[in-house]
Each structure stands twice: as C-alpha cells, then as structure tokens.
C-alpha cells in the first residue's frame, strides 16, 4: 500500500475536508502508539507530525527496550514490573525489531555504587520473577571477577568484584515508530509528516475542536477539525499547550539531554551490552552496546533549555562520556577523533516527577536503613522458599525507610512516569514515559478517548487487545523469530540478493520483505547495490521517506553505524531519490546540503 510523498498530498486534503473523531499531534512513539490503537478500534483518526516521524526523541534513545533494573536500587517494584512485562509485549507485537541480548553489569566496590555483589543478585532474581524468565535460558546469573575480565579483558580490574548477567533487549527505536505509523496508515488513519500545528481551534463554548495547521513544505495553512485532540508531542508538550490560549501555561515538562557516541569496534570491543556506574560518583550509569561492527556508549543526563528541534552535542558531553569510558576501559584511550557518529535527544520528563533512569533520583538519596533492608531480605528469602506471598514482598518494600530521615521512598524519585490529563478546554495531553511503555501509555489514552467519544458524541468504537495488535512488518509468530527470519531471508535470496544482504533486509523489514523484493524488477540503481536500491525504493514509496536524511538516519542506521559507507551511498541515494520524487535542481541541492550537514553534525565535525 502506497504511503509516500504523493499520498501525503491526498492525506492533507482529506485532513482539511474530513471531520475526525480524533486528531493526534506528534508522530513519535507515543503518537504512533495511539494512532495504531485508535485506527484499529474504528475511530476516525488523523495524525500530524511537524518533522519526519521519530525525528525528535523517538530516534534518539539508547536503542534498548530495557527492563529498568536500576529502579530496583530503591526497590521500585511497580515500575520494574510494568517495564519488564511491557518489554515482552513489545517483542510480541514487533517481533522483527527488539531482540533479546543478555546485559553484563560489572560490579565495582566504589563510593555511590548502585549495587554490590549481594544486592545485585537479589535485584536480578526479583527482576527475573517479574519478567517471567526465571528458570529459562534467559535467567540471570553472577560471575566472578576473573570471568568478567575473560569476557571483557579491557575492563578496569581495580575494585572489580564480579558481575551480574541478566536479560535485556536491543531495539531499533526509529523503525519501531515507522512500523506503528505504517500499520495505522494501512488501517485507515490519515497520517502526514511535515505538518505543524500553529494554532488551536475552539467552539463558541471554548472547547477545543481542532487545530490550525501548516504544511511546512508548501507553506500552505489550513484547519483540521476533530471531536477530540490529543497532545503526544513529547518534549514539545508545553510548546503546544502554549498555543492554546484557554490553558494555564505552567510548564509540565522538564526535558533533559542525552548524548550517545559511536566508535568502531576496533577501538572499543565489547561482547555484549554492558551497564556500569559512571565512575564519577554521581549516581549515573552508562550503557556500552555493540552494534553492526561498532560500539556506542551513553548517556549523559543534563537539563536542557535550548532549541528543542535541534539539540547538539557539546564538548562537555563528549568529555563526560570519554572520561567514563576511559575510566572503565583504561587501555582503550578513546579520543574525540575516534568518534565516528553521535546522536543527541531530549527525554520528556514530567517536571513534578523530577528524575530519569540515569540521574539517580530526586532529593532523597539516603540509603535504606539496615533494619528495613534486613526485613526485606528475610521476606524475599521466605518468598523464594514459598513461605511468603508476593503481597508480603510488596508490603515490605512499601515500608522501606531511608537511613537519614526514615521517610518512605517515593516511586517518583526514580520513575520515568507518564501522565494522562484532560485540559480545561478538553485537550487531552499524554506526556512523559519512555519507549518501553509506549503501548501501555497508548492503551490508557485510548480507554479515555473511547469513553469520551461515547459519552459526549455517542460514537461507538471497538474494544481491542493492543497486546496482540502487531505492527507493520511484525505479522508473524513472535515465538518463532529465527525460523521466520530465515524464511524471509530465503525470499530475498530467491529474488537475487546475496545471503548477507538478504538477511539484513529480512531483519529490517520483517513480514514486509516480500513487498520490498517486488522492487527488484526495476534493477539496481546506478551506484547502489540491489539490496540498497530496493530498500530505498520501498522506503520512498511505502514509508513516507522524503529526504536522504530520513532514509540514511531513521529508516536505516547508515549515518550512525555505517559512517564508512556514506561516501559510497551519498550521491547514488540522492540521485535515486531525485528520480523517484522528481526533484528539480534547487531541491536536489537543498537535499544534498541537508544530508551533508547531518553527517557533519553526527561526526562532530565542529568539535573536531
């Protein structure tokens, strides 16, 4: 089904002329999750995104669907319970995207360490029980100092006590977004990128009834009318609320900036994702992840007040991450010149929540008192001996006291919470959260949307099980991923692709691989392999890819993890897109500059 620059024009016309039940503003993971569920429910749905889909926060995460084991530092079982269960749900509805990959956590005896060898085992056991993986091949285990160093000889040995190994999932964040968007489009949603809300429409009673929008490509402005409008703009939540003159404009969000850096695996080789304290005694933890012949690491976590649309990597960000990496891998001696690529994004933290996965929590950072800790450990031991119930464990957790003030710990100290609010004029705002929770956040919003449509407009909609609502490319048995990927690989091989290229396509496009290989009939574009040609043509025609940056940064990871191929891809990708999209010379020149700027920014050319 076409989903392209051409169909975008038709969609914009429909958005102008079709009264909607629901208008979603924001095409990141939150809006995409609401869109797929709303369209599947039979709700007449539109979605507008002012940039490319996932261009903001949702393509700039740590690229994991992780269970939040850090939250167990303060025994926030509720958050971890939700997160690890959602992790499994996401793998079920998008089985070609998140993949299980055990995480190594080296344990150091240092001030402000998150865990010691005793507490990490307790945390991992509880984590596995919540995730339902205890007793499986993915169950956690601890390893000795020598075993840690056998796995990662480059790790610093001083103060290393051992390590824990537990299950997490690697992810392709931008592809998770586009696959949700594509499925919503196929289900009948009216979805357009590069359309910006520039005003909020109200009826005579002051109720929101749509938005005044601008096509940022043509400059044309128009109105979109809808019974309900939902704000899913992530860090931009307050900026959209500022357009609505009927609202109190007290800020809801406190965005923080997160930076990741990429080097070749020859400069820093890790066998599996690794997660450790920063070494700066600041309560932060750092991920180091192998991917596609590269290694990336992050993240920073600093308050941000600059240009939301264009956050940048600063020297301080680089210095912080290089210090952390070179502390833990003292022989690596990674420097600025080794960085091949980078990305930076904003986390949509809720201001009243005041914390994230990475920054160690709110003001109350006191350790748990010994008495409370001992009671908890006994209860956990009793639970494992089947002498206590889960309720007993949760009750013990709820009564944990800090050693200083003896106050009950608040989950919001460490939680990346989300919020669902109905504003004074009826605007719905869905804010906060993280990529792992997107499906559950959307389900909560959909329940409110369905109820409101029925109550206020007598609009009926279907109840759906969003835990079974598979995204585009994910329509296959999630318990049989490897065999299914082999099947789609064979389809691509039969179409004439080499085995390695065929496997890459299958893993990128999942059950859409059969549609991708239909583009083989036109032959390879000049300067491009057959794999790259059909991937690009499919992406332009069926993934609303409008610029070379869309393709090379978000539909694929070329800019991030294949910087050494960009010189070969650069001109052929631009030339083929110019042919497909009928660009004139000025447009082609503008697209070339945009790509060059994106590559230079990713490579940190200005800092170098």
Automatic annotation (TrEMBL):
It catalyses: sn-glycerol 3-phosphate + O2 = dihydroxyacetone phosphate + H2O2. Keywords: FAD, Flavoprotein, Glycerol metabolism, Oxidoreductase. It comes from the Bacteria. GO terms for molecular function: glycerol-3-phosphate dehydrogenase (quinone) activity; glycerol-3-phosphate oxidase activity. Its cofactor is FAD. It holds the Pfam family DAO. InterPro entries: DAO_C, DAO_C_sf, FAD-dep_OxRdtase, FAD/NAD-bd_sf, G3P_DH_FAD-dep. Its EC number is 1.1.3.21. Residues 21-351 form the FAD dependent oxidoreductase domain. One of its GO terms (biological process) is glycerol metabolic process. Gene3D superfamilies: Alpha-glycerophosphate oxidase, cap domain, D-Amino Acid Oxidase, subunit A, domain 2, FAD/NAD(P)-binding domain. The keyword Iron-sulfur does not apply. It is an enzyme of class 1 (oxidoreductase). Residues 466-587 form the Alpha-glycerophosphate oxidase C-terminal domain. Belongs to the FAD-dependent glycerol-3-phosphate dehydrogenase family. This is Alpha-glycerophosphate oxidase. It comes from Lacticaseibacillus pantheris DSM 15945 = JCM 12539 = NBRC 106106.
